[in-house]
Amino acid sequence: MKNEFSKLKRKIILQITLILLLTLLVGFFIYYVLIDGVLQAPFADMFISFCENVLHLDFYSSQNIYSSLFRRNKSLWLAIGFILLLLIIFYVALSRFTRYFNEISEGVDLLTEESETEIHLPSELEFMEKKLKTVKSKLEKRAKDAKEAEQRKNDLVVYLAHDIKTPLTSVIGYLSLLDEASDMPLEQKEKYLKITLEKATRLEQLINEFFEITRFNLQTILLDKETINLNYMLLQMADEFYPLLAPYGKQAIVNVEESLKINADAIKIARVFNNILKNAIAYSDENSIIEIRAFSNDENTIITFTNKGKAIPPHKLDMIFEKFYRLDSSRTSHTGGAGLGLAIAKEIVHAHGGSIFAESNDENTVFTVTIPTHS
């Protein structure tokens, strides 16, 4: 900041120095030219003539007044001249400062008004202009991201509302058939009950997603940290996902030291791994392996989830961690979630002081979570 103001400071000092030099020149002009120089006689004659013609004084009285006022008070008049010039300097310098503040204020107004007008400041305030433009750019990006997130949220709610109607209609339809046909064969009843249960379960999932959308912006992440055996947690999670992996010939393999531990909120960090693993399962190739690795150094514990599948485009690698963003917009809510899983994972990891990011190429996609070792 000190270096940024140096250009402005130099210009103001230069301006004040020039005005001071001008003041000295004017002062010397008054003293050596007007009072005690080449213009002394004409000035004296003009003053005496004024006293004679306007004030109706005689020549000697006018001459005495001139001598009393000017000849005997040269230093006083010189001091008065310098004081007046110094006041002018102060006024000019203050005007310059005021102009700088006004221009900065106008730039801030453009920010608050979200105006499309470009911010322009004097060259000596170039550093401030850059800062204001940076803030404006960030605010515009945030506004754009918020608008896009809100649109994605609204679209998702519409999709979910439509999808809720489908299983609900099926539940009502099959229950109506069971109610109306009391003599229905037992085998057919069991079939209808099984379908009804599946539709009701799907309906519960959709309702849970609605709650997830509602809670996301209202939830404050509070951590209850404890020592966690990372190997045990990840093995248990891989086992829990077996029913989702097996039908597609997929496997989740955990390569983590048995003694590796982290200090974190067990429930919330498990949710992070859960969301990443679900994403890996959803977008990995059939008959492929999802590899989970972890290691620790002095500063961080790094956990990676690697799966083989279609590459994520580079411009979407950051967007997948935004709320309500779904990588494949063609996936319906039946096959994809509310687009909150990775966004929530990011919030939880950041609350732990860590980071989360993704890398992807034609061979595999890797999600990396970093948690401070001594958090």
From TrEMBL:
It comes from the Bacteria. It catalyses: ATP + protein L-histidine = ADP + protein N-phospho-L-histidine. One of its GO terms (molecular function) is kinase activity. PROSITE patterns: HIS_KIN (PS50109). The chain crosses the membrane at residues 12-34, 76-94. SUPFAM superfamilies: ATPase domain of HSP90 chaperone/DNA topoisomerase II/histidine kinase (SSF55874), Homodimeric domain of signal transducing histidine kinase (SSF47384). SMART domains: HATPase_c (SM00387), HisKA (SM00388). PANTHER family: PHOSPHATE REGULON SENSOR PROTEIN PHOR. This is histidine kinase. The gene is vanS.
